[in-house]
UniProtKB/TrEMBL annotation:
Compositionally biased tracts (Polar residues): 61-76
The family this protein is said to belong to: Belongs to the Dps family.
Organism: Hymenobacter humi
CDD domains (alphabetical): DPS
Protein's name in the database: Dps family protein
Gene3D superfamilies with a match to the protein in the record: 1.20.1260.10
Domain Ferritin/DPS: 93-232
Annotated stretches, region: Disordered: 1-49, 61-84
InterPro entries noted in UniProt: DPS_DNA-bd, DPS_DNA-bd_CS, Ferritin-like, Ferritin-like_SF, Ferritin_DPS_dom
Domain of life: Bacteria
Length: 240
């Protein structure tokens, strides 16, 4: 692989150098004939358009320049009327909520696949519904982070490092254990939500406060209700 990449490099350089010449040729073609290059070449057969190199420039990550923005910074300033310290604090809080919400979302899908027992069908459907709702929250949190000028945590290994939800075993577990793990995850997120909503409110970050209260708190509380009612100790066939 390394040798083929090396041999491919001069070709890419040659293509780069050829591009301006091709552009100027296109410009000449347009100015002298009044027709675009592509329409001028249309009758010359397939592959005759010299202005377009159809070879994708692959493997650009191998010699990547420095990132456009480092994680943990709030370097972009959109005109949203919030100070840098406020945006930085909100981004930190939201990345914690994002890592925990991604974890809870994925726990729902795991339990959707692995659930077993007499409540299989309803839990199978319910867990997937909650997974979809958590996925909506994930997107809303991540996009709020970007609006504030931060960088949203995204990949599984980074999420695992940041999340406050304890690691879930790979094994298949009984439904009540699954439910208990989900309820614990919800509670951790909700406790942080109440704390962070207050802080965002005090700092004047109304958008973050509204996201946390209107979407995160409401959705998580509703899901807690639907999940927790499954682990009530209730006789199935006989009233006592
Ligand atoms: Fe499914």
């Amino acid at each position: 692989m390394a040798s083929s990449a090396k041999t491919a490099a001069p070709k890419a350089t040659a293509t780069k150098k050829a591009a301006p010449a091709a552009k100027s040729a296109a410009a000449r073609s347009t100015s002298s004939t009044g027709r675009s290059t592509s329409s001028a070449n249309a009758g010359k057969g397939a592959g005759s358009n010299a202005a377009v190199d159809i070879q994708p420039r692959l493997n650009q990550q191998q010699n990547a320049p420095s990132p456009t923005q480092r994680y943990g910074t709030v370097s972009q300033r959109l005109p949203i009327g919030l100070s840098e310290p406020t945006r930085r604090d909100s981004v930190t809080m939201l990345n914690q909520l994002l890592a925990d919400t991604i974890t809870l979302r994925d726990m729902y899908k795991k339990h959707h696949w692995q659930v077993v027992g007499p409540t299989f069908y309803q839990l199978h459907l319910l867990f997937d519904k909650h997974y979809e709702e958590q996925a909506v929250l994930v997107d809303a949190i991540a996009e709020r982070i970007q609006i504030l000028g931060g960088v949203a945590v995204a990949m599984a290994h980074d999420v695992a490092e940041l999340s406050s939800i304890p690691r879930v075993p790979r094994d298949r577990e009984e439904a009540p254990v699954q439910v208990s793990r989900l309820l614990d995850g919800h509670q951790r997120i909700l406790k942080n939500c109440h704390d962070y909503a207050d802080k965002a409110d005090e700092a004047g970050d109304d958008g973050t406060n509204d996201l946390i209260v209107s979407q995160l708190v409401r959705t998580n509380e509703m899901q807690v209700w639907f999940v927790a009612e499954h682990v009530v100790d209730s006789p199935l066939t006989q009233a006592e």
